[in-house]
Amino acid sequence: MKIDGTNTINGSPEIVYRLLTDPIVLARCIPGCEKLEPTGDNTYTTNLKVGVGTIKGNYTAKITLEDIQPPTHFKMIVEGKGTTGFVKGSGIIDLEPQNGETLVKYDGDVQVGGTIASVGQRMLQGASKMMASQFFTAINAEAQAAVKAEAEQKPVEPPSHGFFEPPCDGSQG
Questions:
Q1: What are the residues facing 109 on neighbouring strands?
Q2: CA angle, 6 as apex, 49 and 40 as ends, to 5°?
Q3: CA distances to 3, 10, 66 from 41, in Å
Q4: Does residue 170 sit within a domain?
Q5: Angle, CA of 124, 60 and 14, to the nearest 5°
Q6: Is residue 166 part of a domain?
Q7: Which of 27, 138, 144, 154 would bridge 36 by S-S if both were Cys, CB 3.0 to 4.6 A apart?
Q8: What domain range includes position 47?
Q9: In contact, 61 and 37? CB cutoff 8 Å
C-alpha cells in the first residue's frame, strides 16, 4: 500500500525536524501511542493501540531512522506485529522551508497482513490518511508551542492533544 502526502507546519525546518525525531514529542502525537522508547542510536520501540473499522488491536513495533540529513531529510523503517496482524514498511520524509513554515513531504510503502488486512485496501488507506492528519495536527500544535517558547525565551509548554484515546503523554507503559 502506498502512503504519501504533504503537510505545512508552522515552524522552521530545524524546529519541525527536531519534533519529528524527538521520542517524547512523538509519543504525544502518534494516534494510539501507549509507549515510545529509544533502544539505540536512531532506533525505537513503540506500543500502539489502533483499529480499522471493527478490527482493533495492540501492536509492538520497531522504528529505525536512516539516511539522516538534519534538518531536511530522513528515512523511516517500521516493522510491527500485533494481535490482528503485521505491518512492515518504509518511507522518506523531506522538509522544505516555505515562507517561515515547513512543507513536510512523505512517501512510503507499507505491507499489511493478517486480520487487519481483511478490511481492504480502501479502508486501510482511509484509516492511514486519518491517522496522518491527526498526527500532523498534533505536530503543528507542538511546533506552534516551540515557536512561541523560543520567541518568549521560555521553556516549551507541551500542548494538550485532546483528540486521542488513550492520551499519548509518554507516561504510560
A1: 2, 90
A2: 50
A3: 26, 28, 10
A4: no
A5: 80
A6: no
A7: 27
A8: 2-149
A9: no
Three-class secondary structure of residue 172 per DSSP: coil
Give the integer Cα–Cα distance in Å for 80 and 78. 6
Grid look-up 507546519 returns 9
State whether residue 97 is helix, strand or coil. Answer: strand
- The verdict on residue 131 lying in a domain is yes
In DSSP notation, 68-88 reads: EETTTEEEEEEEEEETTEEEE
Q: Residue ranges of the alpha helices (H) in the chain?
A: 13-20, 23-29, 121-152
Most confident of 49-53, 79-83, 127-131: 79-83
The pTM is what?
A: 0.87
Report pLDDT for 106. Answer: 97
Neighbours of 36 (CB within 10 A): 24
Q: Report if residue 52 sits inside a domain.
A: yes
Domain total in the chain? 1
